[in-house]
Specification:
The protein is an alpha+beta fold. The chain is built from 13 helices and 19 strands. The chain is globular. The two termini are 31 Å apart. The model has no long low-confidence stretch (mean pLDDT 96). Bound molecules: FE2/S2 (inorganic) cluster and fe (ii) ion.
Length: 433
Amino acid sequence: MDWERTMLRKEQNDLLTQTGPGTPMGQMFRLSWQPALLAEELPENECPPVRVKLLGERLLAWRDTQGNYALTDEFCAHRGVSLWFGRNEHNGLRCPYHGWKYDHTGQCIEVPSEPSESGYCQKVKLKSYPLIERGGVLWTYMGPPEKQPPLPEWEFATVPASHSFMSKRLQECNWLQAMEGGIDSSHVSFLHSGELNTDPLFKGSKGNAYNMGDMKPMFEVVESPGGLYIGARRNAENGNYYWRVTQWVMPAFTMIPPRADHPVHGHFWVPIDDENCWAWSFDYKVTRPLSDKERKAMEAGQGIHVTYVPGTYIPAANKTNDYLVDRKAQKEGRTFSGVFGIAMQDASLQESMGPIVDRTKENLVSTDNGIIMARHRLIRALKAMEKGETPPGIVAEHQHVRSAAVVLPPDKHFKDAARDALVVQTGKEHVTV
Ligand code: FES
Ligand SMILES: [Fe+2]
Protein backbone atom coordinates (compact mmCIF):
# COMPACT_ATOMS: atom_id res chain seq x y z
CA MET A 1 0.00 0.00 0.00
CA ASP A 2 1.16 3.52 -0.76
CA TRP A 3 1.10 4.99 2.74
CA GLU A 4 1.72 8.53 1.50
CA ARG A 5 -1.57 8.43 -0.34
CA THR A 6 -3.45 7.25 2.72
CA MET A 7 -2.84 10.52 4.58
CA LEU A 8 -5.69 12.97 4.64
CA ARG A 9 -5.32 16.45 3.23
CA LYS A 10 -6.55 19.34 5.35
CA GLU A 11 -9.71 19.81 3.24
CA GLN A 12 -10.55 16.14 3.67
CA ASN A 13 -10.04 16.32 7.43
CA ASP A 14 -12.31 19.38 7.57
CA LEU A 15 -14.90 17.64 5.40
CA LEU A 16 -15.12 14.63 7.74
CA THR A 17 -14.97 16.48 11.04
CA GLN A 18 -17.37 19.39 10.46
CA THR A 19 -21.00 18.51 11.13
CA GLY A 20 -22.81 21.80 11.70
CA PRO A 21 -25.83 22.91 9.63
CA GLY A 22 -25.03 23.10 5.91
CA THR A 23 -21.91 20.90 6.02
CA PRO A 24 -21.84 17.69 3.94
CA MET A 25 -20.91 15.46 6.90
CA GLY A 26 -23.59 17.18 8.97
CA GLN A 27 -26.03 16.41 6.17
CA MET A 28 -25.11 12.72 6.29
CA PHE A 29 -25.78 12.58 10.03
CA ARG A 30 -29.03 14.44 9.51
CA LEU A 31 -30.32 11.83 7.04
CA SER A 32 -30.53 9.05 9.64
CA TRP A 33 -32.03 8.68 13.12
CA GLN A 34 -29.54 9.64 15.81
CA PRO A 35 -29.68 8.83 19.52
CA ALA A 36 -30.46 12.15 21.22
CA LEU A 37 -31.22 11.30 24.85
CA LEU A 38 -31.78 8.36 27.14
CA ALA A 39 -35.48 7.80 27.80
CA GLU A 40 -34.67 8.15 31.52
CA GLU A 41 -33.82 11.82 30.95
CA LEU A 42 -37.51 12.62 30.32
CA PRO A 43 -39.07 10.27 32.88
CA GLU A 44 -42.62 11.66 33.07
CA ASN A 45 -45.13 14.05 31.55
CA GLU A 46 -44.42 17.73 32.34
CA CYS A 47 -40.97 16.84 33.70
CA PRO A 48 -38.21 19.48 33.48
CA PRO A 49 -36.92 20.10 29.95
CA VAL A 50 -33.39 18.99 29.00
CA ARG A 51 -30.86 20.95 26.94
CA VAL A 52 -29.68 18.93 23.95
CA LYS A 53 -26.90 20.09 21.67
CA LEU A 54 -26.58 18.00 18.53
CA LEU A 55 -24.65 18.61 15.32
CA GLY A 56 -23.94 22.13 16.50
CA GLU A 57 -27.63 22.97 17.05
CA ARG A 58 -28.87 24.01 20.49
CA LEU A 59 -32.16 22.28 21.15
CA LEU A 60 -34.48 21.53 24.03
CA ALA A 61 -36.08 18.16 24.72
CA TRP A 62 -39.26 18.03 26.73
CA ARG A 63 -42.41 16.00 27.30
CA ASP A 64 -45.82 17.62 27.45
CA THR A 65 -48.92 16.93 29.57
CA GLN A 66 -50.13 14.20 27.16
CA GLY A 67 -46.71 12.48 27.00
CA ASN A 68 -45.77 13.83 23.56
CA TYR A 69 -42.01 14.11 23.18
CA ALA A 70 -40.72 17.41 21.82
CA LEU A 71 -37.34 18.46 20.46
CA THR A 72 -37.49 22.16 19.68
CA ASP A 73 -35.21 25.16 19.37
CA GLU A 74 -33.77 25.99 22.77
CA PHE A 75 -34.50 29.70 22.42
CA CYS A 76 -37.72 31.67 22.54
CA ALA A 77 -38.76 33.25 19.24
CA HIS A 78 -39.58 36.52 21.01
CA ARG A 79 -36.22 37.74 22.31
CA GLY A 80 -34.12 34.64 22.60
CA VAL A 81 -34.45 33.50 26.20
CA SER A 82 -33.50 29.88 26.82
CA LEU A 83 -36.72 27.94 27.15
CA TRP A 84 -34.86 25.61 29.52
CA PHE A 85 -36.24 28.02 32.14
CA GLY A 86 -39.72 27.49 30.72
CA ARG A 87 -42.83 26.36 32.54
CA ASN A 88 -43.96 22.95 31.28
CA GLU A 89 -47.72 23.25 31.80
CA HIS A 90 -51.07 22.42 30.16
CA ASN A 91 -49.83 20.93 26.89
CA GLY A 92 -47.08 23.40 26.21
CA LEU A 93 -43.91 25.10 27.29
CA ARG A 94 -44.28 28.72 28.42
CA CYS A 95 -41.39 31.17 28.24
CA PRO A 96 -40.93 32.63 31.72
CA TYR A 97 -39.95 36.08 30.37
CA HIS A 98 -43.15 37.36 28.71
CA GLY A 99 -45.26 34.22 28.70
CA TRP A 100 -45.20 33.10 25.06
CA LYS A 101 -46.26 29.47 24.89
CA TYR A 102 -45.33 26.66 22.46
CA ASP A 103 -46.76 23.21 21.82
CA HIS A 104 -44.73 20.01 21.27
CA THR A 105 -44.40 20.70 17.54
CA GLY A 106 -42.82 24.07 18.30
CA GLN A 107 -45.94 25.96 17.22
CA CYS A 108 -46.51 29.13 19.23
CA ILE A 109 -50.00 28.87 20.74
CA GLU A 110 -50.14 31.96 22.92
CA VAL A 111 -48.68 35.48 22.91
CA PRO A 112 -50.40 36.95 25.97
CA SER A 113 -49.60 40.59 25.10
CA GLU A 114 -51.36 40.42 21.72
CA PRO A 115 -55.13 40.33 21.21
CA SER A 116 -55.98 36.69 20.59
CA GLU A 117 -58.12 37.59 17.56
CA SER A 118 -54.99 39.01 15.85
CA GLY A 119 -53.80 35.42 15.21
CA TYR A 120 -50.25 36.65 15.70
CA CYS A 121 -49.01 33.50 17.45
CA GLN A 122 -49.97 31.32 14.49
CA LYS A 123 -47.19 32.94 12.49
CA VAL A 124 -44.54 31.94 15.02
CA LYS A 125 -43.05 28.45 15.07
CA LEU A 126 -39.88 27.14 16.65
CA LYS A 127 -37.60 24.79 14.76
CA SER A 128 -38.65 21.29 15.76
CA TYR A 129 -37.54 17.72 15.07
CA PRO A 130 -39.30 14.39 15.68
CA LEU A 131 -38.32 12.60 18.89
CA ILE A 132 -39.33 8.96 19.36
CA GLU A 133 -38.57 6.26 21.94
CA ARG A 134 -37.07 2.93 20.94
CA GLY A 135 -35.01 0.56 23.08
CA GLY A 136 -34.71 3.03 25.97
CA VAL A 137 -33.30 5.71 23.67
CA LEU A 138 -34.97 8.85 22.36
CA TRP A 139 -34.03 9.17 18.70
CA THR A 140 -34.27 12.19 16.50
CA TYR A 141 -34.19 12.82 12.79
CA MET A 142 -32.86 16.26 11.85
CA GLY A 143 -33.04 16.05 8.05
CA PRO A 144 -35.64 17.18 5.52
CA PRO A 145 -39.09 15.79 6.46
CA GLU A 146 -39.64 14.28 3.01
CA LYS A 147 -36.54 12.10 3.46
CA GLN A 148 -37.37 10.80 6.95
CA PRO A 149 -36.52 7.06 7.03
CA PRO A 150 -38.41 4.31 8.89
CA LEU A 151 -37.55 3.92 12.60
CA PRO A 152 -34.09 2.64 13.54
CA GLU A 153 -33.73 -1.14 13.44
CA TRP A 154 -30.49 -1.78 15.35
CA GLU A 155 -30.78 -5.14 17.08
CA PHE A 156 -29.99 -3.85 20.59
CA ALA A 157 -32.99 -1.50 20.33
CA THR A 158 -35.42 -4.24 19.28
CA VAL A 159 -34.66 -6.97 21.87
CA PRO A 160 -36.74 -6.92 25.10
CA ALA A 161 -35.68 -4.19 27.56
CA SER A 162 -34.43 -6.83 30.01
CA HIS A 163 -31.86 -7.99 27.43
CA SER A 164 -30.10 -4.68 26.87
CA PHE A 165 -28.35 -1.83 28.62
CA MET A 166 -27.47 1.58 27.21
CA SER A 167 -25.39 4.39 28.65
CA LYS A 168 -23.95 7.62 27.32
CA ARG A 169 -21.00 9.74 28.29
CA LEU A 170 -19.58 13.04 27.20
CA GLN A 171 -16.39 12.78 25.18
CA GLU A 172 -14.46 15.99 24.66
CA CYS A 173 -13.22 15.51 21.12
CA ASN A 174 -14.50 15.35 17.56
CA TRP A 175 -16.77 12.41 16.71
CA LEU A 176 -14.37 10.99 14.11
CA GLN A 177 -11.39 10.38 16.36
CA ALA A 178 -13.71 8.73 18.89
CA MET A 179 -15.26 6.55 16.17
CA GLU A 180 -11.83 5.63 14.82
CA GLY A 181 -11.00 4.23 18.26
CA GLY A 182 -14.10 2.04 17.98
CA ILE A 183 -12.86 0.35 14.80
CA ASP A 184 -9.19 0.15 15.82
CA SER A 185 -9.00 -3.45 17.00
CA SER A 186 -5.20 -3.36 17.29
CA HIS A 187 -5.02 -1.23 20.43
CA VAL A 188 -6.83 -3.82 22.55
CA SER A 189 -3.70 -5.94 23.07
CA PHE A 190 -1.96 -2.88 24.53
CA LEU A 191 -4.25 -0.31 26.06
CA HIS A 192 -6.88 -2.71 27.40
CA SER A 193 -4.59 -5.65 28.18
CA GLY A 194 -5.15 -5.29 31.94
CA GLU A 195 -8.94 -5.49 31.61
CA LEU A 196 -9.03 -8.60 29.42
CA ASN A 197 -8.24 -10.66 32.50
CA THR A 198 -9.99 -8.65 35.19
CA ASP A 199 -13.11 -6.92 33.86
CA PRO A 200 -16.20 -9.00 34.71
CA LEU A 201 -17.67 -8.22 31.28
CA PHE A 202 -14.54 -9.30 29.39
CA LYS A 203 -12.65 -11.96 31.33
CA GLY A 204 -12.73 -15.70 30.80
CA SER A 205 -12.96 -15.77 27.00
CA LYS A 206 -10.65 -17.98 24.98
CA GLY A 207 -10.38 -15.04 22.60
CA ASN A 208 -8.50 -13.04 25.25
CA ALA A 209 -5.62 -15.50 25.10
CA TYR A 210 -5.48 -15.15 21.30
CA ASN A 211 -5.58 -11.38 21.71
CA MET A 212 -2.62 -11.42 24.06
CA GLY A 213 -0.77 -14.16 22.21
CA ASP A 214 -0.45 -12.28 18.93
CA MET A 215 0.35 -8.59 19.04
CA LYS A 216 0.65 -8.25 15.26
CA PRO A 217 -2.87 -8.76 13.95
CA MET A 218 -3.35 -8.87 10.20
CA PHE A 219 -6.18 -6.61 9.13
CA GLU A 220 -8.58 -7.63 6.39
CA VAL A 221 -11.12 -4.94 5.71
CA VAL A 222 -14.04 -5.64 3.42
CA GLU A 223 -16.77 -3.29 2.29
CA SER A 224 -20.21 -4.12 3.63
CA PRO A 225 -23.49 -2.72 2.31
CA GLY A 226 -23.64 -0.16 5.15
CA GLY A 227 -19.95 0.45 5.81
CA LEU A 228 -17.16 -1.99 6.57
CA TYR A 229 -16.43 -5.39 8.05
CA ILE A 230 -13.13 -4.91 9.84
CA GLY A 231 -11.49 -8.28 10.31
CA ALA A 232 -8.49 -8.66 12.59
CA ARG A 233 -6.71 -12.00 12.22
CA ARG A 234 -4.55 -13.45 14.96
CA ASN A 235 -2.85 -16.82 15.31
CA ALA A 236 -4.78 -19.59 17.05
CA GLU A 237 -3.78 -23.26 17.60
CA ASN A 238 -2.72 -25.72 14.87
CA GLY A 239 -2.23 -23.11 12.20
CA ASN A 240 -5.82 -21.84 12.50
CA TYR A 241 -6.71 -18.17 12.78
CA TYR A 242 -8.76 -16.29 15.34
CA TRP A 243 -10.81 -13.63 13.58
CA ARG A 244 -12.43 -10.67 15.27
CA VAL A 245 -14.82 -8.92 12.93
CA THR A 246 -15.97 -5.44 13.93
CA GLN A 247 -18.92 -3.80 12.23
CA TRP A 248 -18.92 -0.19 11.19
CA VAL A 249 -22.10 1.23 9.71
CA MET A 250 -22.11 4.77 8.38
CA PRO A 251 -21.67 7.19 9.75
CA ALA A 252 -21.11 6.41 13.41
CA PHE A 253 -22.26 2.94 14.52
CA THR A 254 -19.70 0.37 15.62
CA MET A 255 -20.12 -3.11 17.11
CA ILE A 256 -17.22 -4.79 18.86
CA PRO A 257 -16.76 -8.56 18.44
CA PRO A 258 -18.11 -10.67 21.31
CA ARG A 259 -16.12 -12.59 23.91
CA ALA A 260 -17.48 -15.94 25.22
CA ASP A 261 -21.06 -15.58 26.53
CA HIS A 262 -20.60 -11.95 27.61
CA PRO A 263 -23.11 -9.42 26.29
CA VAL A 264 -22.11 -7.89 22.96
CA HIS A 265 -21.32 -4.22 22.94
CA GLY A 266 -20.86 -1.31 20.66
CA HIS A 267 -21.25 2.42 20.24
CA PHE A 268 -22.65 5.37 18.42
CA TRP A 269 -20.40 8.43 18.25
CA VAL A 270 -22.72 11.37 17.83
CA PRO A 271 -21.43 14.93 17.35
CA ILE A 272 -22.55 17.48 19.92
CA ASP A 273 -20.50 20.04 18.03
CA ASP A 274 -17.18 19.70 16.22
CA GLU A 275 -15.16 19.46 19.44
CA ASN A 276 -17.41 17.20 21.54
CA CYS A 277 -19.43 14.07 21.03
CA TRP A 278 -21.68 11.66 22.90
CA ALA A 279 -20.25 8.19 23.24
CA TRP A 280 -23.33 5.99 23.36
CA SER A 281 -22.50 2.52 24.68
CA PHE A 282 -24.85 -0.45 24.38
CA ASP A 283 -24.63 -4.02 25.65
CA TYR A 284 -27.12 -6.77 24.85
CA LYS A 285 -27.89 -10.47 24.60
CA VAL A 286 -30.32 -11.88 22.09
CA THR A 287 -31.79 -14.94 23.79
CA ARG A 288 -31.56 -14.16 27.48
CA PRO A 289 -32.00 -11.22 29.86
CA LEU A 290 -28.84 -9.65 31.22
CA SER A 291 -28.06 -11.18 34.61
CA ASP A 292 -28.20 -9.04 37.75
CA LYS A 293 -24.46 -9.37 37.99
CA GLU A 294 -23.95 -8.11 34.44
CA ARG A 295 -26.36 -5.20 34.85
CA LYS A 296 -24.79 -4.20 38.17
CA ALA A 297 -21.31 -4.30 36.60
CA MET A 298 -22.50 -2.02 33.77
CA GLU A 299 -24.12 0.38 36.21
CA ALA A 300 -20.88 0.39 38.21
CA GLY A 301 -18.99 1.59 35.12
CA GLN A 302 -17.36 -1.68 34.11
CA GLY A 303 -16.99 -3.04 30.60
CA ILE A 304 -17.42 -0.14 28.20
CA HIS A 305 -19.42 1.99 30.67
CA VAL A 306 -18.30 4.64 33.18
CA THR A 307 -19.24 6.24 36.48
CA TYR A 308 -20.27 9.89 36.42
CA VAL A 309 -19.92 13.23 38.10
CA PRO A 310 -23.23 13.03 40.03
CA GLY A 311 -26.22 14.45 38.19
CA THR A 312 -24.39 14.57 34.82
CA TYR A 313 -23.22 12.34 31.98
CA ILE A 314 -19.67 13.61 32.45
CA PRO A 315 -17.32 10.75 33.38
CA ALA A 316 -16.02 10.90 36.97
CA ALA A 317 -12.51 10.41 35.58
CA ASN A 318 -12.09 13.25 33.13
CA LYS A 319 -9.74 15.86 31.69
CA THR A 320 -9.98 18.11 34.77
CA ASN A 321 -8.56 15.42 37.08
CA ASP A 322 -6.14 13.80 34.62
CA TYR A 323 -8.53 10.86 34.37
CA LEU A 324 -7.41 9.82 37.91
CA VAL A 325 -4.28 8.33 36.38
CA ASP A 326 -2.51 5.92 38.73
CA ARG A 327 1.19 5.76 37.89
CA LYS A 328 1.82 3.02 40.42
CA ALA A 329 -0.80 0.79 38.82
CA GLN A 330 0.80 1.52 35.46
CA LYS A 331 4.25 0.56 36.73
CA GLU A 332 2.95 -2.59 38.35
CA GLY A 333 1.23 -3.59 35.12
CA ARG A 334 -2.29 -3.47 36.54
CA THR A 335 -3.29 -1.04 33.81
CA PHE A 336 -1.29 -0.32 30.69
CA SER A 337 -1.83 3.46 30.65
CA GLY A 338 -2.51 4.08 34.34
CA VAL A 339 -6.15 4.98 33.61
CA PHE A 340 -8.78 2.56 34.88
CA GLY A 341 -11.69 1.26 32.82
CA ILE A 342 -11.89 0.52 29.12
CA ALA A 343 -14.04 3.53 28.22
CA MET A 344 -11.82 6.08 29.92
CA GLN A 345 -8.66 4.45 28.65
CA ASP A 346 -9.99 5.15 25.17
CA ALA A 347 -11.44 8.57 25.92
CA SER A 348 -8.35 9.86 27.76
CA LEU A 349 -6.08 9.10 24.82
CA GLN A 350 -8.51 10.31 22.18
CA GLU A 351 -9.08 13.58 24.05
CA SER A 352 -5.30 13.94 24.49
CA MET A 353 -4.99 14.25 20.68
CA GLY A 354 -6.72 17.65 20.93
CA PRO A 355 -10.35 18.37 20.02
CA ILE A 356 -9.77 17.78 16.29
CA VAL A 357 -6.61 15.86 15.48
CA ASP A 358 -4.56 17.08 12.52
CA ARG A 359 -4.67 14.04 10.25
CA THR A 360 -2.13 15.52 7.82
CA LYS A 361 0.59 14.73 10.37
CA GLU A 362 -0.17 11.06 10.96
CA ASN A 363 2.13 8.15 10.10
CA LEU A 364 -0.25 5.33 9.33
CA VAL A 365 0.65 1.62 9.28
CA SER A 366 -1.06 -1.53 8.15
CA THR A 367 -3.09 -1.98 11.36
CA ASP A 368 -4.75 1.37 10.55
CA ASN A 369 -6.34 -0.17 7.46
CA GLY A 370 -9.86 -0.09 8.90
CA ILE A 371 -9.56 3.59 9.71
CA ILE A 372 -8.10 4.44 6.30
CA MET A 373 -10.88 2.63 4.48
CA ALA A 374 -13.60 4.14 6.69
CA ARG A 375 -12.38 7.66 5.87
CA HIS A 376 -12.32 6.92 2.17
CA ARG A 377 -15.71 5.24 2.24
CA LEU A 378 -17.12 8.34 3.98
CA ILE A 379 -15.54 10.69 1.45
CA ARG A 380 -16.93 8.59 -1.40
CA ALA A 381 -20.40 8.54 0.14
CA LEU A 382 -20.32 12.31 0.61
CA LYS A 383 -19.46 12.77 -3.07
CA ALA A 384 -22.30 10.47 -4.08
CA MET A 385 -24.63 12.32 -1.73
CA GLU A 386 -23.83 15.55 -3.57
CA LYS A 387 -25.21 13.88 -6.70
CA GLY A 388 -28.41 12.99 -4.87
CA GLU A 389 -27.62 9.43 -3.75
CA THR A 390 -28.81 8.24 -0.34
CA PRO A 391 -25.83 7.42 1.89
CA PRO A 392 -25.42 3.88 3.30
CA GLY A 393 -26.55 3.04 6.85
CA ILE A 394 -30.11 4.32 6.64
CA VAL A 395 -32.09 1.31 5.46
CA ALA A 396 -33.00 -1.50 7.88
CA GLU A 397 -30.95 -4.04 5.93
CA HIS A 398 -27.77 -2.07 6.69
CA GLN A 399 -28.67 -1.98 10.37
CA HIS A 400 -29.33 -5.73 10.76
CA VAL A 401 -25.67 -6.47 11.36
CA ARG A 402 -23.59 -8.29 13.92
CA SER A 403 -19.98 -8.51 14.95
CA ALA A 404 -18.42 -11.96 15.32
CA ALA A 405 -15.44 -13.79 16.80
CA VAL A 406 -14.50 -17.08 15.09
CA VAL A 407 -11.63 -19.52 14.72
CA LEU A 408 -11.21 -20.58 11.08
CA PRO A 409 -8.82 -22.79 9.14
CA PRO A 410 -6.16 -20.82 7.24
CA ASP A 411 -7.74 -21.34 3.81
CA LYS A 412 -11.10 -19.82 4.85
CA HIS A 413 -11.74 -16.08 4.68
CA PHE A 414 -14.10 -14.62 7.26
CA LYS A 415 -16.23 -12.91 4.66
CA ASP A 416 -17.26 -16.29 3.22
CA ALA A 417 -16.94 -18.60 6.22
CA ALA A 418 -18.63 -16.21 8.68
CA ARG A 419 -21.12 -14.64 6.27
CA ASP A 420 -24.18 -15.69 8.30
CA ALA A 421 -22.58 -14.62 11.56
CA LEU A 422 -22.36 -11.03 10.33
CA VAL A 423 -26.11 -10.49 9.99
CA VAL A 424 -28.94 -10.71 12.51
CA GLN A 425 -30.13 -14.31 12.97
CA THR A 426 -33.45 -14.06 14.77
CA GLY A 427 -33.48 -16.10 17.98
CA LYS A 428 -29.80 -17.00 17.79
CA GLU A 429 -26.90 -15.53 19.73
CA HIS A 430 -23.81 -13.97 18.21
CA VAL A 431 -21.09 -16.30 16.98
CA THR A 432 -18.36 -16.04 19.59
CA VAL A 433 -15.22 -17.57 21.04
S1 FES B 1 -38.31 36.15 25.42
FE1 FES B 1 -39.72 34.55 25.59
S2 FES B 1 -41.61 35.56 25.83
FE2 FES B 1 -40.20 37.19 25.66
FE1 LIG C 1 -10.62 0.76 23.17
